[in-house]
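Technical note accompanying the year-one report. For the benefit of new consortium partners, we illustrate the data format agreed upon in the data management plan: each record pairs a sequence with a structure-token string. No post-processing was applied to the example shown here.
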Amino acid sequence: IRQCISEEININVTLLFGLPRYKEVTDAYMSGLEDRLKSDQGIDGVASVASFFLSRIDTMIDPLLNEKGLHNLKGEVAIASAKQAYNIYKDEFNTTRFKMLESN
């Protein structure tokens, strides 16, 4: 991810299932932008996407919830993950680090 971004290759990171991985993806994205700036290249044209596969999370987790008698939580894990991913997004893209990138 970092290498592609540093070479101005816009990418769509798919099959994200975990929040730690999403945080790694945001770090790689920003690192790639920083690499471009360090080599005196612009970052205006760099745009990428990170896509969570939320339905697959529930598809995997719902049977486990059934086994544990937690039927009321079926279909909720992916929603909770999406909310947490959005919080990570807000945190990461509100840092001094990203503000510096945004100003370039």
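Partners are asked to follow this layout when depositing records. The first helix runs from residue 2 to 6.
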